[in-house]
Amino acid sequence: MHIKTFTAVVVGLGLVTLSACGSSPNDKDSAGSRTVTLVSHDSWAASKSVIADFEKSSGYKVRVLEDGDAGRAVNKAILTKDNPQGDVFFGVDNTLLSRALDNGLFQPYEPKGADLVLPQYRVDEAKHRVTPIDSGDICVNYDKKYFADHKLAPPASFDDLIKPRYRNLLVTENAATSSPGLGFLLGTGAKYGDKGWQDYWKKLKANGVKVVDGWEQAYNQEFSGSAGGRKAKGDRPLVVSYASSPPAEVIYADPRPKTAPTGVAQGTCFRQVEYAGLLSNAGNTEGGKAFLDFLLSEKFQEDMPLNMFVYPVREAAQVPPEFTEYGPQAKNPETMAPDRIAANRDQWVKSWTSLVLR
User: Fold this and answer.
1) Would you say 334 and 190 are in contact if contact means Cβ atoms under 8 Å apart?
2) In which element (H, E) is residue 58 found?
3) Measured in whole angstroms, how far is the alpha carbon of residue 77 from the centre of its chain?
4) Which backbone phi and psi does 48 adopt, to 5 degrees?
5) Around Cβ 13, how many Cβ atoms within 10 Å?
6) DSSP classification of residue 224
7) Over its length of 358 residues, how does the chain's per-residue pLDDT go in tens digits?
8) Which terminus of the chain is more exposed, N or C, with fewer CB under 10 A?
9) What is the DSSP track for 193-228?
10) Cα angle 262-320-330, degrees, rounded to a multiple of 5
11) Please, which residues bridge with residue 117 across strands?
12) How much is the pTM?
């Protein structure tokens, strides 16, 4: 889970990265207490200059351990919590938050700047085990050229996706293995309720939805509207991705188009929030606390959008104009309280798997 938008294009943005087989920050021959180790999913990215500023001002050297997609990274962190691989974990989102908290993954810490987090993103305020860092919307994206060529209006809502005119056009990710896939499932659960979502998915299946393992395959191979999909001759003009995908199609195109080649079906969005926390039994708790403070700093919050294609959660943090123009946040996304996700997630994924994949 959590293959963040544009993994492919943020590779090479210049981070110190440690492979999963590298030494633990608790090893005696490591750099010791002056190194803070961040454990994250594979799509962590930040500007070199911003990391360098933190290292200079704090005196800590940053080491990053990227550990697969978010679901794998969270599960591995839980399994190794007694002897963690690092000090801070970044990338557990609201779809898996309860799993991390129930397994005691984090120890309490309220970072500097926590009072500046927008109220709608705050959770666990009594214990402060996790801190909101970013948000994004999982939404259906559409290929503008396809719909123009076929003189067909793109879908605007969940209801539209089951209409005959959109038969065999949508590709989504497996809800059991992919963050956007799970977010899309939860979006339908929020929209249609505990019972109605299954009937909706029966109709979606009957209308020819295609399911693949993860975002990379769906977006960069199957979707006809992305640069990767066009190269791979993808034939699905609808894909479950992010509201911030269109800006990336503009920013990373050479030459840049005047308008984004893809659009967002605003009535299909589910709000995703990512958190970070100080790992239980962290070897360098003071360094970890300093790094969590840094993640909420204005400098890091404003650096995130063009590196990880997510929105800041800090009040008054600025986003680049490309986001405002090509990838505004959904006005009325579907949302779900973490306790409701916790109560339903595993059973819904099991039911979804049986219903859609078999």
Assistant:
1) yes
2) helix 48-58
3) 17
4) -55, -40
5) 14
6) T
7) 333 434 333 322 333 333 333 334 444 334 458 999 999 998 899 999 999 999 999 999 999 999 877 888 899 999 999 999 999 999 999 998 999 999 999 999 999 999 999 999 999 999 999 999 999 999 999 999 999 999 999 999 999 999 999 999 999 999 998 889 999 999 999 999 998 999 999 999 999 999 999 899 999 999 999 999 999 999 999 999 999 999 999 999 999 999 999 999 999 999 999 999 999 999 999 999 999 999 999 999 999 999 999 999 999 999 999 888 888 889 999 999 888 999 999 999 999 999 999 8
8) C
9) HHHHHHHHHHHHHHTT-EEES-HHHIIIIIBTTSHH
10) 50
11) 314
12) 0.85
Q: Residue 83: what residue type?
A: N
What are 284's two structure tokens? 């360098």
Q: Is the bond preceding 333 in cis, omega lying within 30 degrees of 0?
A: no
- In the block, tokens 């010791």 appear at 32
Query: Can you read off the two tokens belonging to residue 273?
Result: 């929030």
Six-digit token string for 304:
């995130």
For residues 199 and 196, give the distance between their C-alpha atoms in angstroms, rounded to a whole number.
5
Both structure tokens of 201? 């998915």
The three-state secondary structure class of 209 is coil
- Reported as half-sphere exposure (CB side, CA atoms, 13 A), residue 100 has a value of 31
